[in-house]
Amino acid sequence: PPPPPPPPGLINIPLCMAYDLDPNPAPNPPKPPPTANPHLSHQVWAGPLANGDVAVALLNADDTGNATITAEWGDIGVAAGVNMAATDLYTGQSLGTFTGSFSASVGPHDVVVVRLTKP
User: Fold this and answer.
1) What separation, in Å, do the N-terminal and C-terminal C-alpha atoms of the chain show?
2) How does 62-92 read in b/e, with b if 16+ C-beta sit within 10 Å?
3) Residue 117 DSSP SS3
4) What pLDDT score does 10 carry?
5) The model scores a pTM over 0.90
């Protein structure tokens, strides 16, 4: 059966929710992330999905302006030199193919969430 709808007041972003409910999660999920450090205003969060895909969230907790935040392959569990296609999980838009890292400009108190897939 389909999952129940989100509770009232919860932001409903269908693509993000679909990936959150990945029916084939990676066989060895990562350890839970550490407590977010409020002193780190730019953060990268990532985790494995089915078929070797990776979900990545770039967080700008700063309130002074846009920041370019980069997820390096070695830091998110992707082998060096691998090409990965990025899809914006808010819009569904293809962002292109990247090698070695993915970067995005993230507004203050905002987040960019993408799915990286081997093309």
Assistant:
1) 30
2) beeeebebebebeebebeeeeebbbbebeee
3) strand
4) 46
5) no
